[in-house]
Amino acid sequence: MAIRMLSPDSDGGFRSEQVSLVLGSGYVLSFQEQQGDVFERIRERLRAGAGRLRTEGADYLFYALLDAIIDGYFAVIEVFGERIEGIEEEVVTEPDRETLQAIYALKRSLIALRRAVWPLRDVVAELERGESPLILDSTSSTSGTPTTTP
C-alpha cells in the first residue's frame, strides 16, 4: 500500500513523501523517500517491549503505522488553521496586496493538500471492506479503521 506522509514545513506549508507499507504473514515492511518520520513513537514503544504492539500481530503494527501517518495530517491541518487566522486578521485590520497574495498562496497550498490526501479515501475503503486475509477481524475491530476526517 502506498500512502502520502505529510509534515509541516518551515514556510507554513507542508512536505509530502510517499511511504509504502507492505503487510506479510508475520511482518511489516515500510519504505520511505526521506529520513525522519512519524514512526519514532512506535519504535520507542517496540523497544520498551510493553503494550499491544509487542503482543499483537503484524496486522496490528500495520494499523499503528497507518494511524501514525494519518495523525501527521493533523499537524499540517493545524498549521493551515493558524495561517487562515493570520490572514483573517489582516483582511479585517489592514488588507493590502500582500494579503491577497497570501490568500492565493493558501488556496494553492490547500489544493495541493487535497491532492495529497484524496487517495487516502481508497486506502481506507479497502481496509473497511476487510478483504485481506492478513488482517484479522479482531485487529480491525479493536484498532478501528483509520479515519480520513481530521
Automatic annotation (TrEMBL):
Subcellular location: Cell membrane
SUPFAM superfamilies: CorA soluble domain-like
InterPro entries on file: CorA_cytoplasmic_dom, MgTranspt_CorA/ZnTranspt_ZntB
Topology in the lipid bilayer: Multi-pass membrane protein
Superkingdom assignment: Archaea
GO molecular function: cobalt ion binding; cobalt ion transmembrane transporter activity; magnesium ion binding; magnesium ion transmembrane transporter activity
Keywords on record: Cell membrane, Membrane, Transport
Annotated Pfam families: CorA (PF01544)
GO terms for cellular component: plasma membrane
The name this protein goes by in its record: Magnesium transport protein CorA
Lineage, opening ranks: Archaea, Methanobacteriati, Methanobacteriota, Stenosarchaea group, Methanomicrobia
